[in-house]
Specification:
- This protein is α+β, with helices and mostly antiparallel strands.
- The protein has one domain (about 10-220).
- About 30% of the residues lie in helices and about 15% in strands.
- A 5-stranded antiparallel beta sheet has the order 8-7-6-5-9, with helices on one face.
- The N and C termini lie far apart (about 75 Å).
């Protein structure tokens, strides 16, 4: 009569150790793969929004989407501090009707609220989790003095507020809870290309090459 041979304690511990090693190798690699895919999807979101904004400008005599510009003392203008109004404008005019484009797939927290796709445009709140991006408003498609390849238009936002005419060049740094963590930022430029910056302070550096930053305004 044959007896079934059972694992000894040492053999069991060896098997558990091997499984643990494999998990420690596979899980981080899988997470990195997921994040790389999410960065690519995020970049595609930015490109799609950029195309829609450029199309909007083409149809509106070169004016990029903005909301109720108010004159400032220095001759520039100030925007309302909420991206929601701009999102509503492009939605109601039929330029961006897929609300998923506004949310980065890696974004988990936005201004203290969980990042989520708005159920409809009426409930869209850019500062309450429905928008993962910061917009640079103030460009004119045909009259801008900027070089399109050097002019930032949209980028991954920080959880800290990024609004104001004085903000470009003085942005808060991104942190671990932002779209891709504390060191990665996707930036869409006016000519339609996206650059992934490996720098927590990238949102300040992207304004270094602007010729007239006084007429632009960051809106989140």
């Amino acid at each position: 009569m044959f007896r079934k041979r059972a694992f000894t304690l040492i053999e069991l511990l060896v098997v558990i150790a091997i499984i643990g090693i494999l998990v420690s190798i596979i899980v981080p690699a899988s997470m990195r793969g997921i994040e790389m895919a999410n960065r690519s999807r995020c970049a595609n979101n930015l490109k799609a929004i950029g195309v829609s904004f450029t199309t909007f400008a083409t149809d509106f005599k070169g004016e990029m989407p903005h909301h109720k510009p108010l004159p400032a003392a220095n001759g520039s203008f100030q925007e309302t501090p909420d991206f929601s109004a701009i999102a509503v404008k492009v939605y109601t005019n039929g330029y961006i009707t897929d609300l998923r484009l506004w949310v980065c797939p890696s974004d988990k927290l936005d201004g203290g609220s969980p990042a989520s796709v708005a159920k409809d445009i009426a409930s869209f709140k850019s500062q309450k989790g429905n928008c993962s991006y910061m917009y640079v408003s103030g460009y004119h498609l045909m009259r801008t003095a900027e070089t399109p390849a050097l002019a930032p238009m949209l980028c991954d936002e920080a959880n800290a507020r990024e609004y104001g005419p004085a903000t470009p060049g003085n942005m808060p740094k991104i942190g671990k809870d932002d779209n891709h963590g504390a060191n990665i930022r996707n930036v869409l430029f006016l000519d339609g290309h996206v650059v992934t910056f490996s720098d927590a302070n990238a949102a300040n550096a992207i304004f270094d090459n602007l010729k007239n930053s006084a007429v632009i305004c960051s809106v989140d």
